[in-house]
Design a protein that fits this description.
With 299 residues, this protein is α/β, with parallel strands linked by helices. It has one domain: L-arginine/glycine Amidinotransferase, Chain A, CATH 3.75.10.10. 22% of the residues lie in helices and 21% in strands. The strands form five sheets. Strands 1-9-8-7 form a four-stranded mixed beta sheet, sandwiched between helices. The chain has a three-stranded mixed beta sheet with strand order 3-2-16, covered by helices on one side. It has a three-stranded mixed beta sheet with strand order 4-5-6, sandwiched between helices. Bound molecules: arginine. The site of arginine (ARG) has 16 residues, from loops.
């Protein structure tokens, strides 16, 4: 079983995505309603200037549209109750990382969030996934941070992980994650502060195609992406920054739920066979998130 963490194309000798075993797509999606959602302190550059500007009524209407889009493509949609005082809990891709082992056991690795205000969200997700029958695991080194699906992404349909690091997640977590999920990990270094999570600049569309914002990565990481994905599509700056183009929620490599207004990116997505569903997530973009990070696909 290959559980190597790759950081450089010279390490890839003999490795190909084709040879990675298959992995089912998640059957269900978890979301957390924005009942207490707010922008308080600035945790990423998107949030600058937005403190106190969230329109919660509008946020709820936008959140419901994203929820309905998941339901209309046939996903089981569950919600975790929002908790007063946890203003970022709506971004439910960050508190726990879920996957299946090679024996199809459901495993949930709990995050260690960088910001203390967000650490308080994690126990609620731990209880939720425990009740769902997941085996709960903590990262063994308590000095390391990890922000789950914000930085770590399954390759579509394959037992392979892409692991971002640099701002919210420490690279030293990835060997342990490779062991837990019995899968190789390709590590990607983020170097541009605005693209603080991997899900702001890297969006696998199909098993062959990925959408990226190239200036977010160091050169070794770009080489890894170009070497492993046959099709690499680039988001342009305006769409990546203003519309968080790479934070699209891609379902089963068939449908992409995206922020309304994408031009070039939407054409790229259609060109590789995706149906594009436009929604407005502008209230969440104020905090640095869009459709992907207000949803957590699970197995
Ligand atoms: N304000 C939140 C933070 O900075 C937004 C998180 C968005 N999530 C994401 N996966 N990009 O932590």
């Amino acid at each position: 079983m290959n559980t190597q963490a790759y950081a450089h194309i010279n390490d890839l000798k003999g490795f190909s995505i084709k040879n990675c075993p298959p992995m089912p797509f998640p059957s269900s999606v978890l979301m957390c309603p924005p009942d207490y959602y707010d922008v308080l302190q600035v945790q990423n550059p998107f949030m600058a200037g937005h403190a106190g500007s969230v329109d919660r009524t509008k946020a709820l209407a936008q959140w419901e549209k994203v929820r309905d889009a998941f339901v209309s493509v046939g996903k089981t949609l569950r919600t975790i109750p929002a908790v007063q005082g946890l203003e970022d809990m709506v971004f439910c891709s960050n508190q726990a990382f879920v996957g299946l082992t090679s024996r199809m056991e459901k495993v949930c690795l709990m995050s260690r969030m960088r910001y203390p205000s967000r650490r308080r969200e994690v126990p609620h997700f731990e209880s939720w996934f425990r009740a769902e029958g997941y085996r709960i695991i903590q990262i063994s080194d308590s000095n390391l941070n990890f922000e789950a699906h914000g930085d770590c992404r399954w390759h579509p349909g394959k037992r392979l992980l892409w692991g971002g690091y640099g701002f919210r997640t420490d690279p030293e977590v990835y060997p342990e994650i490779a062991d837990i999920f019995e899968t190789p990990v390709v590590k990607l270094k983020l170097v541009n502060e605005r693209f603080y999570h991997l899900d702001t600049c890297f969006c696998p569309l199909t098993h062959e195609a990925v959408l990226i914002y190239p200036p977010a990565f160091d050169s070794h990481s770009l080489e890894l992406i170009l070497k492993l994905f046959p099709i690499v599509l680039a988001a342009e700056e305006d769409e990546a920054v203003r519309l968080l183009a790479c934070n699209a929620a891609v379902i089963d490599s068939k449908v992409a739920i995206v922020q309304r207004g994408l031009g070039v990116t939407a054409r790229h997505m259609r060109a590789v066979g995706l149906e594009v569903v436009e929604t407005d997530t502008s209230e969440f973009v104020k905090s640095g998130g869009s459709a992907y990070c207000i949803s957590m696909p699970y197995f």
